[in-house]
Amino acid sequence: MKLNGTSLNSLPLNGKNHYHNDDLADLLTDEMGESHAATSLETPLREDAFELDDDLKIELIEKHFREIMNILGLDLTDDSLKGSPRRVAKMYVKETFSGLNPANKPSATLFENKFQYNQMLVEKDITVHSYCEHHFVPIIGKAHVAYISSGKVIGLSKLNRIVQFFAKRPQVQERLTMQIANELKAVLETEDVAVIIDAKHLCVSTRGVNDVNSSTITSAYSGKFEDEATRQELLRYVANGSVTI
Q: What is the pTM assigned to this prediction?
């Protein structure tokens, strides 16, 4: 087998007749290049991901981020920089990647659809702030979610919170779209769900090709939204201007 033109047989073996992880990682990184491959619908997590409490995670991340800043040659005695390792560590654990912890998943209480409203409900322009899992730079955009009640409804703010929960983790946009859709189907007890995300990736706009104009659109349609007329109705709502207050 070859990766990036290199035969695996040419790699040195360790004492257990396995290839060195660093050698394989370098080859796989070169082979994947700019590919946005995703290995699973589930966010890749180790089984022991939550054995450390948040305070210890912050302490460890602070230590390692300080070392990164040192390696970059930054002066950590400067008043502007000396608190940055701690700030970054708290941001990672408590904010940016808080969606990794299932304990932070929003509880979603269902209510009887007493109004007998049987048309689609659309929550549009939900803010998406996520991070690309390949370069750990932001993904910024909007999500539009819709569902048709099967007899139950959910508080509107919970739709936003579900989107934000799955966004607050290292992501690829395709996985994020499907995770939101699957969660909505489970919570709302209906297959009649749609999710559309339109986002800019800073790994595209601030590095690599440096294209500041392009955006990425992903969608997930299920149930009645697989019907062309229903899907077109949704797209008309999404295309119309936002409500101003």
A: 0.83
